[in-house]
Amino acid sequence: MMRISRVAWLLQVPLIAAFSTSYKAHYAKRVAIIGAGAGGSSTAYHLARYAAEAGISTNITVFERNTYVGGRTTTVQAWNDPLSPAMELGGAIFVEVNHIMMDAMQTFNLSAAGHDVLARLEMPDLGIWNGQEFVLVTKAGGTWWDTAKLLWRYGAAPLWTNRLMKSAVGKFLTMYDEPVFPWKSLSDAIERIGLLDVTGVTGEQYLKANGIGRRFADEVIQASTRVNYASNLAYIHGLETMVCMATSGATAVEGGNWQIFAHMLKSSRANVQLNTTINRISKRKDGSYQVTTSAGDTSVFDDVVLAGPLQYANLAMDPAPKHVPDEIPYTKLYTTLFSSPHRLSPEAFNLGSGAAVPQYVLTTLPLWEDSVDGVGSPGFYSISISDAGTNPHTSPRRFEYIYKIFSPSRVNATFLSHILGQKVSDEEAAHGDVDGTVSWIHHKIWYSYPREYPRVTFEELRLDDGLWYTSGIESFISTMETSALSGKNVARLMRDEWVSGRYKPEGWNQDPAYEVKQVQM
After folding, report:
1. How far is it, in rounded angstroms, from Cα 49 to Cα 268?
2. Do domains 2-73+254-327+461-517 and 114-251+330-450 have the same CATH topology?
3. What pLDDT does 514 receive?
4. Of 149, 298, 459, 520, which is most buried, counting CB atoms within 10 Å of its CB?
5. H/E stretch holding 298
6. Is 94 helix (H, G, I), strand (E, B) or coil?
7. Confidence of residue 516 (pLDDT cuts 50, 70, 90)
């Protein structure tokens, strides 16, 4: 409930009043956005700005089936304590080339998350584990000797990979500006900027064709594709592989990245209706859309934006739109947060007694193991210490590490006992024990992102007259930033269509008392 209250305060929408609003709009365009994640929030924010620039009045309603905004950027409080650190369950960081996220952080005067406690921990920064050994261990602020060892093992592959990444990302960034932006067809835009040859092959094929050695590809780049997209190089396209290597300037918002999207919604002055599921969209004879909630309430809109994967929306559409997005496989990812006074056991990673296990443990497949469309022999994608502090509930209070695990299945007591080198009971693995080995634990299952298999055609943005779709971009690149970019693009296309007059539902600019009724909850 605390998270709901914080969101409502940010949006300046009373929790009860938000669900029972009606008003009259003078020539206002009525827009429904289904989903308050990155795509939906960005659509509302940019549509309000674009429409205002064109002198067009809008009434924007955002429907969100969850009790919070931000989609996959949700957080939980460590130890279920409101004064303890907010821990990201989904999108944890964004980087300097993520222009929308970076600009929003500055515009809304949000602070970057600090990790002062972690900086004082005396342990290696990152290690890549292949199920039997660490093939690479690095330290933050490493010396020239660390760089020399890297070049000795991988030759010039790190340098060539960086150049390859900058070339691919540089082409992608042209999608933010004219003449490419706004794009009416994602497939056409990708072809225009020269990235189809990157999305049309696997990461493995793309790296090999560009002379990147197998050792660096399999040990380092694959570790990055696994932690970011739970995919090995043979099962992810080349562009998403390059995106995984664009890590410069990584940051996050203090208290949770969801605040960016909450501020976008607040700035848009949208009517945000949380805990509201839309289960039917019906196109009317005049070209407008009737939207029906699971409670049976209805309202009418000129435009509707679907800002989440349609295949998980449980949404009936009558009639079917001209373009229906393909159903594509999504990754089922288990995220586990837990706290313990114990560091990871060196014996679990075949290290000598007393050795320090790195703060971030990424995984890859050993060179002799055939590539699989799954986790392989390491058994998990990553384990990291996300934060540390004093547990306020233990007696006496004790210093604990807060871990995050990405895995293909739910972690159990056997696994936790192994990595900590301490006995963990089934009860602790499920719910935590305040004075036990695992004092607090939180489990979350995500259908987090599409399987990023190679492809050269992508979903339509405009499914029908007045019906828009932001999530088609996820098979191209799936990040908070690209979802926000897709929302911005749809907002611009919608505004341009209004200005051109190509699509005007009956009643637009005719009846000055045109009434807009919001859903009654």
Report:
1. 8
2. no
3. 32
4. 459
5. strand 298-301
6. strand
7. very low
Judged by phi (left if over 0) then psi (alpha if -120 to 50, else beta), residue 80 lies in: left
Given a cut of 50, is residue 176 above it in pLDDT? yes
Measured in residues, the chain has a length of 521
Residue 381 sits at φ, ψ, to 5 deg, of -95, -40
Residue 84 contacts by C-beta under 8 Å, 6 or more apart in sequence?
77, 78, 389, 392
Q: Is residue 134 very low, low, confident or very high in pLDDT (cuts 50, 70, 90)?
A: very high
Q: Where along the chain do its domains lie? A: 2-73+254-327+461-517, 114-251+330-450
Q: Residue 447, Cα to own-chain centre: how many angstroms? A: 11
- Parallel/antiparallel/unpaired status of strands 29-34 and 58-63: parallel
pLDDT at 198: 98
Secondary structure (3-state) at 214:
helix
Beta strands in 46-173 (DSSP E): 58-63, 75-77, 86-88, 126-129, 134-138
Q: At a CB cut-off of 8 Å and minimum separation 6, what does 54 contact?
A: 495, 498, 499
Confidence of residue 114 (pLDDT cuts 50, 70, 90): confident
pLDDT band at 513 (very low <50, low <70, confident <90, very high): very low
As given in the structure block, the two tokens for residue 46 are 């940019």
3-state SS, 366-423, equals: CCCCCCCCCCCCCCCCEEEEEEEEEECCCCCCEEEEEEEEEECCCCCHHHHHHHHCCC
The 10s digit of each residue's pLDDT in 156-175 is: 999 999 999 999 999 999 99
Can you tell me the distance from the alpha carbon of 87 to that of 76, in angstroms, rounded to the nearest whole number? 5
Q: How do 398-407 and 382-391 pair as beta strands?
A: antiparallel
Average pLDDT on 506-515 reads 40
Q: How far apart (Å, rounded) are the C-alpha atoms in residues 386 and 303?
A: 41
Classify domain 114-251+330-450 by CATH number. Answer: 3.90.660
CATH architecture of 2-73+254-327+461-517: 3-Layer(bba) Sandwich (3.50)
Counting other chains too, the contacts that 193-197 makes at CB distance below 8 Å and 24 or more residues apart are 195/168, 195/171, 195/239, 196/456
pLDDT tens by residue, 284-314: 999 999 999 999 999 999 999 999 999 999 9
Q: Is the peptide bond before 392 cis (omega within 30 degrees of 0)?
A: no
Q: What is the pLDDT of the chain when averaged over all its residues?
A: 89
Q: Are 39 and 487 contacting, i.e. CB atoms less than 8 angstroms apart?
A: yes
Residue carrying the six token digits 């933050």: 140
